[in-house]
Amino acid sequence: MTVVAVLDDIHGAFLTAQPFDRLRERVEVRVFQRRLDPPDRAPALSDVDIAVALRERTRFDAAFLADAPSLKLIVQTGRVGPNLDMDAVTRAGVLVAGAGGGSSVSTVELTFGLMIDVLRQIPQSDRRMRDGTWEVPYGRVLRGRTLGLVGMGRIGSQVAEIAAGAFGMQVLAWSRNMTPERAAKVGGQAVGLDDLLRTADIVSVHLTLNDGTRGLLTAEKLALMRPEAYFINTARGRIVDEPALARMLAEGRLAGAGLDVFWEEPLPPSSPLLGLDNVVLTPHVGWPADASYQTYAESATRVIEAYLDGGAVDFANPEARSARQRTSA
Questions:
Q1: Among 41, 55, 236, 302, the one annotated catalytic
Q2: Which single residue of 11, 76, 141, 248 could bond 253 by disulfide (Cβ 3.0 to 4.6 Å)?
Q3: Helix, strand or coil for residue 293?
Q4: Model confidence band, residue 327 (pLDDT cutoffs 50, 70, 90)
């Protein structure tokens, strides 16, 4: 029987995901809630045919593939990202198929949660009360403030609509493909990146990480922001110069920040961000929520069913087929 392994399901979401109940009628499904590392990895994966990767938690490299000799297909939820050594995977004859459709709701909601937490100092107040201190902070509201969106795709567009409609915020938007029409459609205004950084009360990042966005928000770009402005990032840490951001926050050149993503994850104990009281930190929780897990489970199930039935699957590396045939010959 075909064996499907769900890897790094730290919340056990796929244990009860309804779409996988359907899949269990055809294959053996194993859900691993803990990270598999040597020497436990090889015996656990020796007979696995299909691996479901939950976002970027699992690193697929030559060492991993050596421990999974029967692996034929990786179903990657979300985008095919840096967790996949595509050269090694393809040489091993392992196909990769994306299982998109993850819900953006959880990231959108977290974006506003971080904004409110930072402006109203909610985590700091909770911490002080638990320490026995009754200290009322000077809070700031979202209504009437200017929100600058760096990137306005699927998630950024939803943030723009809610910001303008629910909170009465003025929304400025920038991306390389931004047009006045696209911005206006969700209640925003298209502006240049430098103007956005100079003007916005809150800057929120919603870009995918690629060669064009890596390091986009340099120290020089961040320095354009006003000292009373706030910075929110629920996208990817490497888009921004993290050391420069930490220095600005420590020196009072920014009022505060809400950060869900970092250069290195988990965030190392040596990070200066951990010592800053004007920063709210979350451990990359933008996507791991019930809605996202449900849509990923459904999408992954459809991909696996199509693969088993010999149907159309959009493989990221179709050339892996010939590599496997050469190996088998």
A1: 236
A2: 248
A3: helix
A4: low
Amino acid letter at 183?
A
How do residues 225-247 score in pLDDT, each as one tens digit?
Answer: 999 999 999 999 999 999 999 99
Q: Can you list the domains of the chain with their CATH numbers?
A: 3-103+289-328 (3.40.50.720), 105-281 (3.40.50.720)
Contact between 108 and 158 under an 8 Å Cβ cutoff? The reply is yes
Task: Let me know if 284 is a catalytic residue.
Answer: yes
> Among 105, 211, 103, 208, which Cα is nearest to 159's?
105
Q: Exactly one of 41, 55, 206, 284 is catalytic; which is it?
A: 284
pLDDT tens for residues 183-241? 999 999 999 999 999 999 999 999 999 999 999 999 999 999 999 999 999 999 999 99
- Mind listing the pLDDT tens digit for each residue in 19-53? 999 999 999 999 999 999 999 999 999 999 999 99
Asked about 265 being catalytic, the answer comes back as yes
State the Cα–Cα distance between residues 1 and 161, nearest whole angstrom.
48
- Which whole-number Å values give the CA distances from 54 to 6, 10, 31, 166, in the listed order? 8, 10, 11, 32
The CA-CA-CA angle for residues 114, 277, 156, to 5°, reads 20
Report the C-alpha gap between 320 and 329 in whole angstroms. Answer: 14
What share of the chain has pLDDT > 90, as a percent?
94
Give the span between the Cα atoms of 270 and 281, in whole angstroms. Answer: 14
> Is 135 designated active site?
no
**What is the spatial distance between Cα 85 and Cα 104, in angstroms, rounded to a whole number?**
26
